Amino acid sequence: MLKRLFEERPGDDGLPGRERKLAMLAMITGTQLAVLDNGIVNIALPTLADALAISGSQSIWIANVYQLVTAALLLTFAALSRRIGRHRLYIGGLAIFTLASLGCALSRSFEWLLAARALQAVGAAAMLSIGPSLYRIIFPSRLLGSAIGLSALTVAFGIAAGPSLGGLILHVADWPWLFAINVPIGLLALTLATRSLPREAPIRGRIDLIGALLSIVMLSGSVFALDQFGHGDGGAPAIATLAVSLLCLIGFVWRQRHVTRPLVPLALFAEPRFSFAATVSMFAFLAQGIAFVGLPFLYQTTLGVSPLDSALLFTPWPLAIMLIGPLAGRLADKANPAVISSTGLGIFLCGMLALAGIDAETHGLDIVWRSALCGIGYGLFQAPNNREMIGSVSVELSASASGVLASVRTFGQSLGTASVGLILGLSFGSLTLSLWLGCVSALVALGLSLYRVPLARNPHRR
């Protein structure tokens, strides 16, 4: 499949084959750094708490600040990319991430590490906000699905390998190397990105600062509140934060309707294929978020396995995405992507239903095939759906579409985490109930995906 991505045909848009290869390598490396860094740090929180002489609850903020800042800036950076050029934003974000990684490695206090992590998140947000839209201008339209499938593989590998890589680094070196390892890799990615990413002329005009502020409060506030609910720390502050976020959402939508140069052009949502793909994506990521948080607890409490065995039981899911994602992307270049996505969601729903049936007598391979079934279905869904989102809008709007894609993914995952926490906090709550909620979310995603099939078959329909 890789060789096919670099073949040239008459009339191709995008970059020439060799330049495509270097640009893809730069994109994969940068995205991998941003995704891996979260998993690497999560596994190291107890070690960081001991090394920095802080409590376990304080150490959680080393992970949380990364997620909060990234979520807050996704839409703003997607809009900024149109003003300065996507290549400049991606290169700048990669440079900031690399520099901040060095700052994290040199940190000797909790406060310094927290600030460096926030700066890391700024760089990660710049890269993740426009990654899919850059694939749109790097690769020919006929290969967009395959390219996005490769992007899905990259993210899945980061999810799968993060905890294991973090554990390996801590086994052979001290905690600063969790971050120091990013520096040489980041410098390599910077060299590749500077030489290979396609240049764009900036679009004149000011960014909508009020809209940006509203989006930052809206996104960071909602993620913060959901995170508090997910950790059982809800209550008045979390409810108040969520209320402020909802007010900012209303203000943001009003602002986008009335400002001359909106942060997120509402014309995106006038395209039904885009709107359906975004909504389907949110419900699918909600279901996956529930499973990603609930299953490790289920394995360790209900089945009584060790954390290591729990990780091994979970691994078939991201590994299946890695294997299926590129194939699904290639299929989406040749057939109706909504049909492929719907098929994947059907398989994913079957896997979720199978996982919801786990009990204390379920062991070994009987769990592995259920987890693998979810991964196969999700891998078949994700790349075609992302292709539908990015490919259904014009190139001019693709940067905004990319920001929306990253935002709904983050919000869906955060809502999934919060849902598990809320259910566990209820007197009648259980881990199995949270998985059933994930099944309901997957069923909603499947229903919406099936409804939009005729739209994808007739792409010019409005």
Description:
Helix 2 (17-43) packs antiparallel against helix 6. The chain contains 20 helices and no strands. The mean pLDDT is 84. It has 462 residues and is mostly helical. The protein is 80% helix and 0% strand. 54% of the residues are buried. It has helices spanning 2-5, 17-43, 45-52, 56-84, 86-106, 110-138, 144-172, 177-180, 182-196, 209-230, 236-258, 267-270, 272-301, 307-314, 316-332, 337-356, 365-391, 398-425, 431-451, 453-457. The chain is globular and about 60 Å long.
Short overview:
The protein is mainly alpha-helical. It is built from 20 helices and no strands. Helix content is 80%, strand content 0%.
Task: Give the topology, please.
Elements (H helix, E strand, L loop, with lengths): L1 H4 L11 H27 L1 H8 L3 H29 L1 H21 L3 H29 L5 H29 L4 H4 L1 H15 L12 H22 L5 H23 L8 H4 L1 H30 L5 H8 L1 H17 L4 H20 L8 H27 L6 H28 L5 H21 L1 H5 L5
Helix pairs in contact: 2-6, 2-7, 2-9, 3-4, 4-5, 4-6, 4-10, 4-18, 5-6, 5-9, 6-18, 7-15, 7-17, 10-11, 10-18, 13-14, 13-17, 13-18, 13-19, 15-17, 16-17, 16-19, 17-18, 18-19
